[in-house]
Automatic annotation (TrEMBL):
<comment type="similarity">
    <text>Belongs to the TRAFAC class TrmE-Era-EngA-EngB-Septin-like GTPase superfamily. EngA (Der) GTPase family.</text>
</comment>
<feature type="binding site">
    <location>
        <begin position="9"/>
        <end position="16"/>
    </location>
    <ligand>
        <name>GTP 1</name>
    </ligand>
</feature>
<feature type="domain" description="EngA-type G">
    <location>
        <begin position="3"/>
        <end position="164"/>
    </location>
</feature>
<comment type="subunit">
    <text>Associates with the 50S ribosomal subunit.</text>
</comment>
<protein>
    <recommendedName>
        <fullName>GTPase Der</fullName>
    </recommendedName>
</protein>
<feature type="binding site">
    <location>
        <begin position="119"/>
        <end position="122"/>
    </location>
    <ligand>
        <name>GTP 1</name>
    </ligand>
</feature>
<comment type="function">
    <text>GTPase that plays an essential role in the late steps of ribosome biogenesis.</text>
</comment>
<feature type="binding site">
    <location>
        <begin position="56"/>
        <end position="60"/>
    </location>
    <ligand>
        <name>GTP 1</name>
    </ligand>
</feature>
Length: 164
């Protein structure tokens, strides 16, 4: 089976948009599973001749970011268990939130390599400033991306495929 790239993050940061971006021009095979995995969707993707599967862990909708952290973490945990690498998506417009920090703290304890994608960075100059705020999460270099525009995702994928 293909290596798995797990997309993790609190609601509304752009996980599903990123998954669709990474899986663009692929047949959109969406695979829903019952039980604890029901909110994960799997899509085929490739980059530079490397085939992999992207998992969107965010099917749940929340009113409050922080209230449902255990559920987000449970989803992330299930996805991470089978992943070769994880992309932790955060929102460059809001800066780091308490929920981001809690997820980051948990991710730092996992064995799976984690890449930090600072989404919604449409402006190149401002994006660098927005991304730099996320060094404090302790997950290494933040990648400024825009899932909507597709900017920055190539640089991110160049690193992702090193872990497949
Ligand atoms: P998820 O809950 O993490 O899966 O987030 P979604 O992919 O559903 O996106 C949440 C909201 O953020 C939607 O309104 C998207 O249109 C918006 N969004 C996603 N990616 C970007 C981006 O790169 N730039 C901007 N400005 N908005 C984005
Ligand atoms: Mg989503």
């Amino acid at each position: 089976s293909l290596p798995i790239v797990a997309i993790i993050g609190r609601p509304n940061v752009g996980k599903s948009t990123l998954v669709n971006r990474l899986a663009e021009e692929q047949s959109a095979i969406v695979h829903d599973q019952p039980g604890v995995t029901r909110d994960r969707t799997y899509k085929p993707a490739y980059w530079r001749d490397r085939d992999f599967t992207v998992v969107d862990t965010g099917g749940l909708v929340f009113n409050d970011d922080t209230e449902f952290l255990p559920l987000i973490r449970q989803q992330a945990m299930a996805a991470l268990a089978e992943a070769s690498v994880a992309i932790f998506v955060v929102d460059g417009r809001t800066g780091p939130t308490p929920a981001d920090e809690e997820i980051a703290e948990w991710l730092r304890q996992q064995k799976v390599p984690v890449l930090l994608a600072v989404n919604k960075c449409e402006s190149p100059e401002q994006g660098l400033i927005q991304a730099a705020e996320f060094w404090e999460l302790g997950l290494g270099e933040p990648f400024a991306i825009s899932a909507i525009h597709g900017s920055g995702t190539g640089d991110l994928l160049d690193v992702v495929i090193n872990y497949l």
